Every structure is written in C-alpha cells, then in structure tokens.
C-alpha cells in the first residue's frame, strides 16, 4: 500500500515509510520519495488498489471517476467538522446534459471499499429543476466521512451497493439524498435544506428489490442561501418508488420540517407498500400524513448493512451531527 499526496501549494506533512506524490516535482520536502501530479485524476490513474491519495489545501476543478477498489481520498485536515475542511472538489454538470445521473456527478465511485475523509464536494450547476449530482456511489461498502456535499437537486446519489455517510454536511433543495437499490446509512449527518417545500430524500425501491435509507442522529437546518420561507416547509422525503423505505430516528428536525412530514412523488401514487418511518425525533411538531409510520423501536445498522463491522470506520459508529 502506498500513500499518494496531491498538493495545490507547498506544504509540510510528516509521513513515515510512505511514498508521497506531489504536484511540484523536484521540490525537497523531507519525504522518502516525491513525484508530481497536477490533478487528482492523474493521481487516480497512478494509484493501485489499497492506496491513499492525500489532498492538500486548495480547490480542484475537476470531475472524478474512481473505478479501482480500495482507494482512499483524504483531505489535509483531520477535523470532525466539515466546516473546517480545506480541500474542495468542484464541477458543474446537469444530469440532463449527460447520458445518466451518474455521469453528472462531481465524484462518481464505481469501485468498492472506497473511503473519503474531510473533502468538500460540489456540483455547482444550479438555477434549474434538474438533477446535478455531487456524489454518486455504485460500488459496495463505500464510505464518506466528514465531507461537505453541496448541490441543488439530487445531491447524493446512493445508486447501487452499500453506503455509509458520517458526520457530513449535505446541502440541497430537492431529493438531497436519493437512490433506488442501495442500502445507505447516514450517521450523524447535517442536512441543509435550501428550497421552500423541498425534500430531503427520495428512496426508490422497486417491488422485490433492495434499497433502504436510514438517517440516524441527523440534524436538519436551513442551508446557506436558502429560500426565504424554507423553515417549516421541508419534507423528510418522497417515495421515488412504490416500495420505498426511509427512516429518520433520533434526529433533530430543527422545526424545519413541515407538519405533514412526508409527501408523495406523484399525486396518484400507491402508498400501502411504502415504509416511511420515524422514531424518537425532536423538534418535529405536526400531524404526519396517514401513510407514514411512527415506529416502536429504532432500526439497527446491522439490519441495513449486515457486515458493517468489516468496513465502516468504528470511530464513526453512533456519531452525532457536527
């Protein structure tokens, strides 16, 4: 396993017994070995499964595809607060301008056992009712820790496989987190709502298929630049499929969520097979829609991600929102 470093400025980081690859070749930094990369994509091309790419402070204007397994992208900080991240990866692409939602993503992860730490990832395409994905995950056992994830609609696409997101900030207006077949556990995330009447999730499980979202110890807030009347108007989710499953538990809804709690994707949608549930949330006054469920117990992570102990960073299990 080797450690790859990508810099946008000259910085010093003590790394023992690792190969570190830098932007400026020939610059003496006291490391064992140095090489040059001008983009994250170049570093990804050189990386082998099991490698870590360390990104130093700066803004990287590129779209990333991580197709190799067991790659880690790590920002320069080790804070547990996304607001203190110093690395940003930014692009602007609507899904309608590509062949799929995945292809609009600023970060598309098709490999498995991927890890991201302390990164801000943004799709800055805005101003239209179109999906503009910041992160799409289609691999198995992919995890995102202490990330700032920003977009307008369809911001985090838990498309396929299994996903764990912890102590991250996810901001958007409509369907902030969405997906069909992935099982996704959102641990202690802060959800920044920006649209009046917007939706925080859109889970789209189909009959007989997989797919489950759980938000544990989340906190809902009004996001930066939000519509004037966002507070009190936002919905926890809408069913993208007639067998959708989403749970919010132990979460602070911040008086941002509308009393009805949930809304339909289409007005004629069947609801008898939808599981939209809540357990032990706070700041959530209001009468919920008749087809939502008040759960008698919390959902366990092992029921959603059965082998989570083998791949989730244990320091983030049970974490609360930053």
TrEMBL record:
Keywords: Aspartyl esterase, Hydrolase, Lyase, Signal. Residues 1-18 form the signal peptide. GO terms for molecular function: lyase activity; pectinesterase activity. Pathway: Glycan metabolism; pectin degradation; 2-dehydro-3-deoxy-D-gluconate from pectin: step 1/5. InterPro entries: Pectin_lyas_fold, Pectin_lyase_fold/virulence, Pectinesterase_cat. SUPFAM superfamilies: Pectin lyase-like. Its EC number is 3.1.1.11. GO terms for biological process: cell wall modification; pectin catabolic process. It is an enzyme of class 3 (hydrolase). Residues 35-293 form the Pectinesterase catalytic domain. Belongs to the pectinesterase family. This is pectinesterase.
